[in-house]
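INTERNAL AUDIT FORM
Audit reference: QA-55
Scope: verify that the stored structure record matches its stored sequence.
Auditor: D.O.
Record contents follow.
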Amino acid sequence: MSTTYAIANQKGGVGKTTTAINLGAALTELKQRVLLIDLDPQASMTLALGINPDTLELTVYNALASVVSDEEVLGLEKVMMPTKTGMSLIPANIELSQADLDLVREPLGVYALRDTLLPIRNQFDFILVDCPPSLGILTTNALAAADKVIIPLQADYLALKGVYLLLRSIAKIQRRVNRNLRIAGILLTMADTRTTHARDIIANTRQVFQGRVPIFETIVKLSVRLKEAPLTGRSVLEYDSQSPAAAAYRALALELLGREVKPNG
């Protein structure tokens, strides 16, 4: 049985999509079977993997919509596609924005993603769900389907403040929807460790959440390579295999697998 990770933060631009793709690529290097799910109507993950969302006939939206309609359920295996990175992808496009209406109207709409995943979970070791930058029904679906949640956190004061709201939302999901959901950890991203501000945020985060929320030892530092890689439709591990960014996501993969990793940052 696979482990499903929701990669969530209601704040945009903190590295959710970047983390999903590059963590998935690092796990793939370690011979893990990885499925990526794009649950953001902006389809950033789909685009970053070199796929034009506007050309897709079937996406994750079609599968979710079929679960809450009277039509025959569309299995995710009919939506799944291979990528250059060796991972499988459930893509998205702008049609997914309609899910906010479709799923909210349904009493059990929060479980749509969980139900569509059940038939294919055994095909993978890791399922990584890229959540939209909101705490709406799509993110709730991801948290309802997930075993664990990874919280990317930009090493910035305002981003840190927003984590408290997310943690309250996760606690509600744990009480009402998914009692088995656990926080895998906070992942510090986009950290310019040359600055005092970033170093202070890193230290403050570890101090504030120590003993309450796990924090990954791995720190993903600010890197232009992480911005360039999506333009090629590849992960940073393929685009610049020897870069510090690639090394960071390899270290994160080892942390998830419980293998020894040298802390950085």
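Auditor finding: record pair retrieved intact. The chain has a mean pLDDT of 91.
Action required: none
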